[in-house]
């Protein structure tokens, strides 16, 4: 196992090596939250069990094969949430973890998320109840990374921080993170957790060639300064950056993130296709490698072993500075919304 060594010198209190500066490989392990050793790329499991992605129960065998293929390729980090498929994604992961345990395999790192619905106002009980339900669905005694899904709670960030700290003190959670937080919100949560002696492990935000806002606002840089890993969700822009979709074959209407017309993306996709051919990798690997080069841990998606192997081709090489600059020039900044502050 190769441990990357690039924690910023300006942050001696950083919780670990949280991003790769050299070539990301299948053996590379980053350390987030001080204790989780994870691959430089993760897999988001929204599509595992959710109707948005046309999930059907008969797809489970493909997902199980995908789970094995990903770990065989060196990816040991999976992200889910209580709301993905109304808990079905967590239940699927629970079945996979149980199978792995029966085979004597080392389990991967699994993160999940708490959604701050407006009616969840009694803390820490609201969070602890949801946390225990997630643990039951996954069949685990501890959650390795527990994240606040969005900055929409009616209670203050400090109240949420106290609830997360309580979960850690009870031994139910190893590390804690947030999602969709702005710079100011992330700093406030970092400060509030620090009062409990707890490091904020991560901030999960939408980041891709079609939404570079976390980079242009300085959020990624601030996260690095504080030792907070940046988990980049939708790094493939819901399939728009894979080469699968065109102006004549657009993505399904429900795939709302980075919803640009495919005709508008043609120049970027043409450059991505050329770079992919030069490196002998699929276009999806170019998109994922780009986010790694920018100091994030991308959460790719895969529903079959072939997609798993395509994702894995983002490792073992690195875009050149000239290639990154060319892609930057054709990228999109994106914006914020009610749900996405970061």
Automatic annotation (TrEMBL):
Pfam families: Aldo_ket_red. Gene3D superfamilies: NADP-dependent oxidoreductase domain (3.20.20.100). Residues 41-331 form the NADP-dependent oxidoreductase domain. One of its GO terms (molecular function) is oxidoreductase activity. Keywords: Oxidoreductase. InterPro entries: AKR, AKR_Detox_Biosynth, Aldo/ket_reductase_CS, NAD(P)_OxRdtase_dom_sf, NADP_OxRdtase_dom. The keyword Transit peptide does not apply. The keyword Oxidoreductase applies. This is NADP-dependent oxidoreductase domain-containing protein. It comes from Dissophora globulifera.
């Amino acid at each position: 196992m190769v441990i990357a060594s690039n924690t910023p010198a300006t942050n001696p209190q950083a919780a670990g090596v949280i991003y790769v500066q050299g070539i990301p490989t299948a053996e590379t392990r980053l350390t987030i939250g001080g204790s989780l050793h994870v691959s430089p790329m993760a897999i988001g499991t929204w599509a595992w069990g959710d109707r948005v992605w046309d999930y059907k129960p008969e797809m489970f065998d493909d997902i199980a094969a995908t789970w094995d293929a990903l770990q065989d390729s060196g990816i040991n980090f999976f992200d889910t949430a209580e709301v993905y498929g109304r808990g079905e994604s967590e239940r699927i992961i629970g079945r996979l973890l149980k199978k792995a345990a029966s085979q004597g395999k080392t389990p991967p790192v699994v993160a999940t998320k708490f959604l701050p619905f407006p009616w969840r106002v009694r803390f820490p009980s609201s969070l602890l109840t949801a946390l225990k339900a997630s643990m039951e669905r996954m069949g685990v005694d501890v959650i390795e990374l527990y994240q606040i899904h969005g900055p929409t709670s009616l209670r203050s960030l400090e109240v949420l921080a106290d609830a997360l700290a309580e979960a850690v003190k009870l031994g139910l959670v190893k590390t804690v993170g947030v999602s969709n937080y702005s710079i100011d919100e992330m700093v406030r949560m970092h400060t509030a957790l620090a009062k409990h002696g707890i490091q904020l492990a991560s901030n999960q935000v939408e980041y891709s060639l079609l939404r570079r806002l976390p980079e242009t606002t300085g959020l990624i840089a601030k996260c690095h300064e504080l030792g907070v890993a940046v988990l980049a969700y939708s790094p493939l822009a819901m399939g728009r950056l894979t080469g699968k979709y065109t102006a004549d074959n657009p993505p399904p209407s429900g795939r709302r993130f980075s919803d640009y017309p495919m005709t508008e993306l043609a120049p970027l996709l043409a450059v991505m296709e050329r770079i992919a051919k030069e490196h002998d990798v699929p276009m999806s690997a170019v998109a994922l490698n780009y986010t790694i080069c920018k100091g994030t841990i991308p959460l790719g998606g895969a529903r079959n072993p072939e997609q798993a192997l395509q994702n894995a081709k983002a490792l073992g090489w690195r875009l050149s500075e000239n290639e990154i600059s060319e892609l930057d020039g054709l990228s999109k900044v994106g914006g914020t919304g009610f749900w996405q502050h970061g």
